Amino acid sequence: MSTRNNGKRYNDDFKKMIVDLYHSGSSVKDLSSEYGISDVTIYKWIKDLTPVEGTDGKEITPKDVDAIQKENLRLKQELEILKKAMTIFARK
């Protein structure tokens, strides 16, 4: 019998706690059995929440990088719109 929890949500504090436990020496297998979370989910949290050192010495997570990339794309699109608007108004 499967004990899968489809659609179960965990808050960010809980995810960080699991990742911190992993970094302090607990194995993914132990955390999985103790908290009832799949190994794959824990590995995803580790990937998403483990910070890496940036060029300026600050730590940044892959989640932060994704957010920065989305913001960058949005700003590029806004800039293109403004450039097109400038050409239209410059003609008048």
TrEMBL record:
InterPro entries: Homeodomain-like_sf, Transposase_8. One of its GO terms (biological process) is DNA transposition. Pfam families: HTH_Tnp_1 (PF01527). GO terms for molecular function: DNA binding; transposase activity. SUPFAM superfamilies: Homeodomain-like (SSF46689). This is Transposase.
